[in-house]
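Researcher: I need the complex structure. Ligand is magnesium ion. Inputs:
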Amino acid sequence: RTKERGRNNFQLYTTSMNEDSMQKLSLEGFLRKALGLQEFVLFYQPQVNVSSGEIIGVEALLRWKHPVLGMVSPASFIPLAEETGLIVPIGEWVLRTACEQIKIWHEAGYPDLIVAVNLSARQFLQEDLVEMVQRVLEETGVDAEFLELEITESVTMHNVERAIVVLNELRNLGIRISLDDFGTGYSSLSYLKHFPIHTLKIDQSFVRDITTDADDAAIASSVIALALSLNLHVIAEGVETEDHLRYLAERGCYDMQGYHFSRPLPAQDVEQLFVRGKLFKTEVVPPLSDED
Ligand code: C2E
Ligand code: MG
Ligand code: MG
Ligand code: MG
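Model: Output:
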Protein backbone atom coordinates (compact mmCIF):
# COMPACT_ATOMS: atom_id res chain seq x y z
CA ARG A 1 0.00 0.00 0.00
CA THR A 2 2.81 2.31 0.84
CA LYS A 3 4.34 1.57 -2.53
CA GLU A 4 1.08 2.31 -4.32
CA ARG A 5 0.69 5.57 -2.54
CA GLY A 6 4.26 6.37 -3.35
CA ARG A 7 3.56 5.83 -7.02
CA ASN A 8 0.44 7.97 -6.92
CA ASN A 9 2.31 10.70 -5.21
CA PHE A 10 4.95 10.50 -7.87
CA GLN A 11 2.34 10.81 -10.59
CA LEU A 12 0.71 13.76 -8.93
CA TYR A 13 4.08 15.31 -8.58
CA THR A 14 5.07 14.96 -12.22
CA THR A 15 1.63 16.12 -13.35
CA SER A 16 1.89 19.29 -11.37
CA MET A 17 5.49 19.79 -12.48
CA ASN A 18 4.31 19.63 -16.07
CA GLU A 19 1.55 22.08 -15.41
CA ASP A 20 4.01 24.36 -13.75
CA SER A 21 6.44 24.30 -16.62
CA MET A 22 3.62 24.67 -19.14
CA GLN A 23 2.37 27.69 -17.28
CA LYS A 24 5.88 29.04 -17.10
CA LEU A 25 6.42 28.51 -20.81
CA SER A 26 3.31 30.39 -21.81
CA LEU A 27 3.99 33.12 -19.26
CA GLU A 28 7.48 33.45 -20.71
CA GLY A 29 6.05 33.72 -24.22
CA PHE A 30 3.67 36.45 -23.12
CA LEU A 31 6.41 38.21 -21.20
CA ARG A 32 8.67 38.32 -24.26
CA LYS A 33 5.98 40.21 -26.16
CA ALA A 34 4.77 42.43 -23.34
CA LEU A 35 7.23 45.27 -23.82
CA GLY A 36 6.55 45.58 -27.56
CA LEU A 37 2.80 45.40 -26.96
CA GLN A 38 3.05 48.20 -24.39
CA GLU A 39 1.43 46.11 -21.70
CA PHE A 40 3.61 47.47 -18.92
CA VAL A 41 2.69 50.48 -16.88
CA LEU A 42 4.27 52.14 -13.87
CA PHE A 43 2.35 52.87 -10.72
CA TYR A 44 3.75 55.30 -8.18
CA GLN A 45 3.51 55.13 -4.42
CA PRO A 46 4.14 58.30 -2.42
CA GLN A 47 6.84 58.51 0.23
CA VAL A 48 5.69 60.84 2.95
CA ASN A 49 7.53 62.84 5.60
CA VAL A 50 5.15 62.70 8.53
CA SER A 51 6.49 65.76 10.32
CA SER A 52 5.98 68.11 7.36
CA GLY A 53 3.15 66.09 5.84
CA GLU A 54 4.78 66.48 2.47
CA ILE A 55 5.32 63.92 -0.25
CA ILE A 56 9.08 63.74 -0.67
CA GLY A 57 9.18 61.21 -3.44
CA VAL A 58 7.53 58.30 -5.17
CA GLU A 59 8.54 54.71 -5.71
CA ALA A 60 7.93 53.45 -9.25
CA LEU A 61 6.35 49.99 -9.20
CA LEU A 62 5.95 47.93 -12.33
CA ARG A 63 2.54 46.62 -13.38
CA TRP A 64 1.75 44.22 -16.21
CA LYS A 65 -1.71 44.51 -17.71
CA HIS A 66 -2.18 41.45 -19.87
CA PRO A 67 -5.35 41.42 -22.01
CA VAL A 68 -6.17 37.84 -20.99
CA LEU A 69 -4.28 37.20 -17.76
CA GLY A 70 -5.36 40.53 -16.33
CA MET A 71 -3.16 42.37 -13.88
CA VAL A 72 -0.07 40.22 -13.23
CA SER A 73 1.74 40.94 -9.99
CA PRO A 74 5.45 41.78 -10.18
CA ALA A 75 6.10 39.16 -7.52
CA SER A 76 5.11 36.51 -10.08
CA PHE A 77 6.80 37.82 -13.23
CA ILE A 78 9.94 39.62 -12.00
CA PRO A 79 11.63 36.32 -11.03
CA LEU A 80 10.87 34.93 -14.52
CA ALA A 81 12.07 38.15 -16.12
CA GLU A 82 15.27 37.77 -14.12
CA GLU A 83 15.75 34.15 -15.14
CA THR A 84 15.25 34.86 -18.83
CA GLY A 85 17.23 38.09 -18.88
CA LEU A 86 14.13 39.97 -20.03
CA ILE A 87 14.51 42.13 -16.93
CA VAL A 88 17.32 43.99 -18.72
CA PRO A 89 15.19 45.65 -21.43
CA ILE A 90 12.19 45.83 -19.08
CA GLY A 91 14.32 47.48 -16.41
CA GLU A 92 15.62 50.06 -18.86
CA TRP A 93 12.04 50.82 -19.88
CA VAL A 94 11.11 51.24 -16.20
CA LEU A 95 13.98 53.65 -15.58
CA ARG A 96 13.27 55.71 -18.68
CA THR A 97 9.53 55.89 -18.01
CA ALA A 98 10.08 56.86 -14.36
CA CYS A 99 12.57 59.57 -15.37
CA GLU A 100 10.25 60.95 -18.06
CA GLN A 101 7.47 61.11 -15.47
CA ILE A 102 9.58 62.80 -12.79
CA LYS A 103 10.65 65.37 -15.39
CA ILE A 104 7.00 66.10 -16.15
CA TRP A 105 6.28 66.55 -12.44
CA HIS A 106 9.31 68.76 -11.88
CA GLU A 107 8.15 71.02 -14.69
CA ALA A 108 4.56 70.95 -13.44
CA GLY A 109 5.59 72.67 -10.21
CA TYR A 110 6.91 69.90 -7.95
CA PRO A 111 10.62 70.48 -8.45
CA ASP A 112 11.89 68.57 -5.41
CA LEU A 113 10.28 65.19 -6.02
CA ILE A 114 12.55 62.17 -6.01
CA VAL A 115 11.77 58.96 -7.85
CA ALA A 116 12.89 55.58 -6.51
CA VAL A 117 13.39 52.80 -9.04
CA ASN A 118 13.96 49.13 -8.18
CA LEU A 119 17.02 47.46 -9.63
CA SER A 120 17.22 43.68 -9.84
CA ALA A 121 20.30 41.52 -9.39
CA ARG A 122 20.55 40.68 -13.08
CA GLN A 123 20.45 44.35 -14.03
CA PHE A 124 23.10 45.12 -11.49
CA LEU A 125 25.41 42.56 -13.10
CA GLN A 126 25.14 44.19 -16.54
CA GLU A 127 28.50 45.50 -17.66
CA ASP A 128 26.98 48.70 -18.99
CA LEU A 129 24.62 49.46 -16.11
CA VAL A 130 26.26 52.75 -15.17
CA GLU A 131 26.41 53.95 -18.80
CA MET A 132 22.78 52.95 -19.33
CA VAL A 133 21.68 54.93 -16.26
CA GLN A 134 23.75 57.92 -17.27
CA ARG A 135 22.36 57.82 -20.81
CA VAL A 136 18.75 57.65 -19.59
CA LEU A 137 19.31 60.59 -17.23
CA GLU A 138 20.80 62.63 -20.06
CA GLU A 139 18.11 61.75 -22.56
CA THR A 140 15.30 62.53 -20.15
CA GLY A 141 16.98 65.64 -18.75
CA VAL A 142 16.69 64.54 -15.13
CA ASP A 143 19.29 65.56 -12.58
CA ALA A 144 20.91 62.52 -10.94
CA GLU A 145 20.11 63.85 -7.47
CA PHE A 146 16.42 63.15 -8.10
CA LEU A 147 16.96 59.47 -8.80
CA GLU A 148 17.20 56.84 -6.10
CA LEU A 149 18.01 53.27 -7.06
CA GLU A 150 16.68 50.58 -4.74
CA ILE A 151 18.74 47.44 -4.47
CA THR A 152 18.39 44.50 -2.12
CA GLU A 153 21.18 43.08 -0.04
CA SER A 154 21.31 39.97 -2.24
CA VAL A 155 22.22 42.10 -5.27
CA THR A 156 25.51 42.96 -3.66
CA MET A 157 26.26 39.40 -2.52
CA HIS A 158 27.34 37.90 -5.87
CA ASN A 159 30.47 39.94 -6.13
CA VAL A 160 31.16 42.32 -3.29
CA GLU A 161 34.22 43.96 -4.85
CA ARG A 162 32.41 44.74 -8.07
CA ALA A 163 29.30 45.90 -6.20
CA ILE A 164 31.39 48.46 -4.35
CA VAL A 165 32.86 49.73 -7.63
CA VAL A 166 29.47 49.97 -9.37
CA LEU A 167 27.78 51.60 -6.39
CA ASN A 168 30.57 54.15 -6.14
CA GLU A 169 30.21 54.97 -9.83
CA LEU A 170 26.47 55.48 -9.42
CA ARG A 171 27.05 57.51 -6.30
CA ASN A 172 29.61 59.66 -8.12
CA LEU A 173 26.99 60.46 -10.73
CA GLY A 174 24.96 61.89 -7.85
CA ILE A 175 22.42 59.08 -7.60
CA ARG A 176 21.16 57.89 -4.23
CA ILE A 177 21.30 54.22 -3.38
CA SER A 178 18.71 52.68 -1.12
CA LEU A 179 18.92 49.24 0.51
CA ASP A 180 15.42 47.80 0.02
CA ASP A 181 13.85 45.17 2.30
CA PHE A 182 16.59 45.88 4.80
CA GLY A 183 16.96 43.25 7.48
CA THR A 184 15.61 40.35 5.42
CA GLY A 185 18.88 39.57 3.64
CA TYR A 186 22.12 38.25 4.93
CA SER A 187 24.52 41.09 4.51
CA SER A 188 26.85 41.75 7.39
CA LEU A 189 26.66 45.09 9.07
CA SER A 190 30.22 45.88 8.02
CA TYR A 191 28.90 46.15 4.45
CA LEU A 192 27.18 49.33 5.42
CA LYS A 193 30.59 50.82 6.03
CA HIS A 194 31.96 49.81 2.63
CA PHE A 195 28.91 50.43 0.46
CA PRO A 196 28.06 54.02 -0.45
CA ILE A 197 24.47 53.70 0.70
CA HIS A 198 22.21 56.69 1.20
CA THR A 199 19.04 55.09 2.57
CA LEU A 200 17.97 52.07 4.60
CA LYS A 201 14.48 50.92 3.84
CA ILE A 202 12.89 49.00 6.72
CA ASP A 203 11.14 45.97 5.30
CA GLN A 204 7.39 45.80 5.62
CA SER A 205 7.58 42.39 7.32
CA PHE A 206 8.98 44.12 10.41
CA VAL A 207 6.47 46.95 10.29
CA ARG A 208 3.35 44.80 9.99
CA ASP A 209 3.29 43.59 13.62
CA ILE A 210 5.48 46.29 15.04
CA THR A 211 3.09 47.11 17.87
CA THR A 212 2.38 43.49 18.84
CA ASP A 213 5.48 41.45 18.06
CA ALA A 214 8.39 42.29 20.33
CA ASP A 215 10.98 40.82 17.94
CA ASP A 216 9.76 42.82 14.95
CA ALA A 217 9.65 45.94 17.11
CA ALA A 218 13.21 45.31 18.27
CA ILE A 219 14.47 44.81 14.72
CA ALA A 220 12.71 47.90 13.36
CA SER A 221 13.96 50.00 16.28
CA SER A 222 17.50 48.72 15.77
CA VAL A 223 17.47 49.53 12.07
CA ILE A 224 16.33 53.08 12.85
CA ALA A 225 19.01 53.47 15.53
CA LEU A 226 21.62 52.04 13.18
CA ALA A 227 20.65 54.42 10.38
CA LEU A 228 20.65 57.42 12.67
CA SER A 229 24.04 56.60 14.13
CA LEU A 230 25.60 55.92 10.71
CA ASN A 231 24.04 59.13 9.37
CA LEU A 232 21.93 57.27 6.85
CA HIS A 233 18.47 58.22 5.72
CA VAL A 234 15.84 55.75 6.93
CA ILE A 235 12.39 55.07 5.50
CA ALA A 236 9.80 52.50 6.53
CA GLU A 237 7.68 50.60 4.04
CA GLY A 238 4.35 48.87 4.63
CA VAL A 239 3.02 51.52 7.00
CA GLU A 240 -0.68 50.70 7.16
CA THR A 241 -1.97 52.22 10.39
CA GLU A 242 -1.73 55.23 12.64
CA ASP A 243 -0.14 52.91 15.24
CA HIS A 244 2.62 51.93 12.80
CA LEU A 245 3.20 55.60 12.03
CA ARG A 246 3.36 56.61 15.67
CA TYR A 247 5.68 53.80 16.70
CA LEU A 248 8.17 54.59 13.93
CA ALA A 249 8.06 58.36 14.35
CA GLU A 250 8.58 58.06 18.10
CA ARG A 251 11.81 56.28 17.34
CA GLY A 252 13.03 58.85 14.86
CA CYS A 253 11.85 57.47 11.51
CA TYR A 254 9.78 60.20 9.86
CA ASP A 255 9.79 59.09 6.24
CA MET A 256 7.29 56.41 5.39
CA GLN A 257 5.53 54.61 2.60
CA GLY A 258 2.45 52.43 2.82
CA TYR A 259 -1.27 51.97 2.40
CA HIS A 260 -1.91 54.29 5.36
CA PHE A 261 -0.97 57.15 3.03
CA SER A 262 -1.69 55.71 -0.37
CA ARG A 263 -1.53 52.57 -2.44
CA PRO A 264 0.62 52.66 -5.57
CA LEU A 265 -1.39 54.63 -8.14
CA PRO A 266 -1.28 55.51 -11.84
CA ALA A 267 0.63 58.76 -12.54
CA GLN A 268 -2.47 60.93 -12.98
CA ASP A 269 -3.99 59.69 -9.73
CA VAL A 270 -0.87 60.14 -7.62
CA GLU A 271 -0.57 63.66 -9.05
CA GLN A 272 -3.92 64.47 -7.43
CA LEU A 273 -2.22 63.87 -4.09
CA PHE A 274 0.52 66.42 -4.90
CA VAL A 275 -2.11 68.95 -5.87
CA ARG A 276 -3.94 68.54 -2.61
CA GLY A 277 -0.61 69.01 -0.85
CA LYS A 278 0.17 68.64 2.84
CA LEU A 279 -2.46 65.96 2.85
CA PHE A 280 -0.58 63.84 5.31
CA LYS A 281 0.05 66.41 7.98
CA THR A 282 0.03 64.62 11.28
CA GLU A 283 0.94 66.09 14.61
CA VAL A 284 4.68 66.06 15.12
CA VAL A 285 5.52 63.06 17.22
CA PRO A 286 8.27 63.85 19.70
CA PRO A 287 11.00 61.25 20.01
CA LEU A 288 10.74 59.02 23.06
CA SER A 289 13.06 59.99 25.87
CA ASP A 290 15.41 57.35 27.21
CA GLU A 291 13.18 56.59 30.19
CA ASP A 292 10.19 55.59 28.03
P1 C2E B 1 9.41 46.43 -3.09
O1 C2E B 1 10.36 47.19 -3.92
O2 C2E B 1 9.80 46.14 -1.69
O3 C2E B 1 8.05 47.27 -3.14
C1 C2E B 1 7.14 47.39 -2.09
C2 C2E B 1 5.94 46.48 -2.30
O4 C2E B 1 5.07 46.58 -1.18
C3 C2E B 1 5.09 46.85 -3.50
O5 C2E B 1 4.54 45.65 -4.01
C4 C2E B 1 4.00 47.71 -2.88
O6 C2E B 1 2.82 47.75 -3.63
C5 C2E B 1 3.78 46.98 -1.59
N1 C2E B 1 3.25 47.84 -0.53
C6 C2E B 1 3.35 49.18 -0.40
N2 C2E B 1 2.75 49.62 0.72
C7 C2E B 1 2.24 48.54 1.33
C8 C2E B 1 1.50 48.34 2.55
O7 C2E B 1 1.20 49.26 3.30
N3 C2E B 1 1.16 47.04 2.85
C9 C2E B 1 1.48 45.99 2.05
N4 C2E B 1 1.11 44.78 2.43
N5 C2E B 1 2.19 46.15 0.90
C10 C2E B 1 2.56 47.40 0.54
P2 C2E B 1 4.52 45.34 -5.57
O8 C2E B 1 4.23 46.59 -6.33
O9 C2E B 1 3.62 44.17 -5.77
O10 C2E B 1 6.01 44.92 -5.90
C11 C2E B 1 6.58 43.78 -5.31
C12 C2E B 1 8.06 43.72 -5.56
O11 C2E B 1 8.32 43.54 -6.96
C13 C2E B 1 8.81 45.00 -5.18
O12 C2E B 1 9.04 45.03 -3.79
C14 C2E B 1 10.06 44.83 -6.00
O13 C2E B 1 10.95 43.97 -5.37
C15 C2E B 1 9.55 44.17 -7.26
N6 C2E B 1 9.36 45.20 -8.29
C16 C2E B 1 8.32 46.03 -8.51
N7 C2E B 1 8.55 46.84 -9.57
C17 C2E B 1 9.79 46.53 -10.00
C18 C2E B 1 10.63 47.03 -11.07
O14 C2E B 1 10.30 47.96 -11.80
N8 C2E B 1 11.85 46.42 -11.23
C19 C2E B 1 12.26 45.41 -10.40
N9 C2E B 1 13.48 44.87 -10.63
N10 C2E B 1 11.52 44.94 -9.39
C20 C2E B 1 10.30 45.49 -9.19
MG1 MG C 1 11.45 48.84 -3.61
MG1 MG D 1 10.85 46.71 -0.17
MG1 MG E 1 9.51 43.79 -0.65
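Model: Summary of the prediction. Strands lie at 40-49, 55-66, 70-72, 114-118, 147-152, 176-182, 199-202, 233-236, 255-256, 265-266.
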